[in-house]
Design brief:
The chain has 13 helices and 11 strands. The chain has 358 residues and is α/β, with parallel strands linked by helices.
């Protein structure tokens, strides 16, 4: 088992990464200290792993909320369901919410924990690759709005992240590929050497080689922990982690949440952002093609022509990085170095949107 740390002073917390952590109940019991525990999961993950979590926490007062699976259910109504259960069971500020699932479950459980009695403890037990390398770390919580992705939420750091890599054995291939989009993101924004490693090992990752997956998860968590430790509330470099997300969120929102997985939309968004970087004179055409080839080898969908360019731009206007009415974009100065720009040429954005969207 590897243990990393997100360094936030008195609110620092560990990230545990290893195989069979759910079966090794002592690790969970040691990190989840509360007597009253609310387990939040979904209908798919609960069937597979809730029993192991209950066994690890035997002797505590355990209550469960099992939500529908999928991005379409990441709503205020479902957060209200979680809050209702906390209130009905008279849980106090010393209770803990445990998120067992992927990014949707983690975001909603964390948001409910942030809101209940102005904030109670929660622990992330991520079961998808995307959650293990990205969404479970860093304390971003929230839900979607019909007008835009993750528009309602709060920063609320977990007390621990317990990543059982064995849960990836049951992850559908499509979800694995979607998670790999977020893995590729880290190489593009801040670690060119890691991107080179990914190009040489994408076949092993797709084949679920345990050593390759463990290395990728650890490196992504290391990079994100460093960035969050320096910029918890996204006032600077943490915005780099949104590379591909402004375009990707527009794809998700305009498509009605459901036809695209989040990681798939991010993958397509990263290609669009790379092309925008080229239009701004930073990346070469060869760089963009290199990125396209890796995303294609990963098996990610890249065709977003079903979304109209005008609709994409409307949804981008609600992005959380908008300031003074200007859409700020996370772009690449070069492979391995991201930046946030607001002074890009408007005609470059229009041309990029026209080249990719319908």
């Amino acid at each position: 088992m590897d243990t990393l740390s997100v360094d936030l002073g008195s609110r620092s917390y560990p990230i545990l990464i290893g195989a069979q952590l759910l079966a090794r109940g002592e690790q969970l019991a040691a990190r989840i200290r509360a007597r009253d525990i609310l387990i939040v999961s979904n209908t798919v993950v609960a069937t597979l792993y809730a029993a192991a979590l209950r066994a690890a926490l035997a002797g505590r007062n355990l209550v469960e909320v099992i939500l529908p699976d999928g991005e379409a259910h990441k709503t205020l109504d479902n957060v209200a369901r979680i809050l209702d259960v906390l209130v009905t069971n008279r849980f106090g500020r010393d209770a803990c919410v445990v998120a067992l699932g992927g990014g949707v479950v983690g975001d909603m459980a964390g948001f409910a924990a942030a809101c209940y009695q102005r904030g109670i403890e929660f622990v992330q037990v991520p079961t998808t690759l995307l959650a293990q390398v990205d969404s479970a770390v860093g304390g971003k919580t929230g839900v979607n709005h019909a007008a835009g992705k993750n528009l309602i939420g709060a920063f609320h750091q977990p007390a621990a992240v317990i990543t059982d890599t064995s849960t990836l054995d049951t992850l559908p291939d499509r979800e694995l590929r979607a998670g790999l989009a977020e893995v590729i993101k880290y190489g593009l924004i801040c670690d060119a050497d890691f991107l080179g490693w990914l190009e040489g090992n994408i076949g092993a990752l797709l084949a679920r080689d345990p050593q390759a997956l463990a290395h990728a998860i650890r490196r992504c968590c290391e990079l994100k922990a460093q960035i969050v430790g320096r910029d918890e509330h996204e006032r600077g470099e943490r915005a780099w982690l949104n590379f591909g997300h402004t375009f990707g969120h527009a794809v998700e929102s305009a498509s009605g949440y459901g036809s695209w997985l989040h990681g798939e939309a991010v993958g397509a968004g990263m290609l669009i952002a790379a092309d925008m970087s080229r239009a701004c004179g930073m990346l070469s055409a060869a760089d963009v093609e290199r990125i396209r080839q890796l995303l294609t080898r990963t098996g990610l969908p890249l065709d977003v022509t079903a979304v109209r360019a005008s609709d994409a731009l409307t949804h981008m206007g609600l992005d959380k990085k908008v300031q003074a009415g200007r859409i700020r974009l996370v772009l690449l100065r070069r492979i391995g170095e991201a930046c946030v720009l607001a002074d890009y040429p408007d005609d470059a954005l229009q041309a990029t949107l026209a080249a990719h969207f319908g």
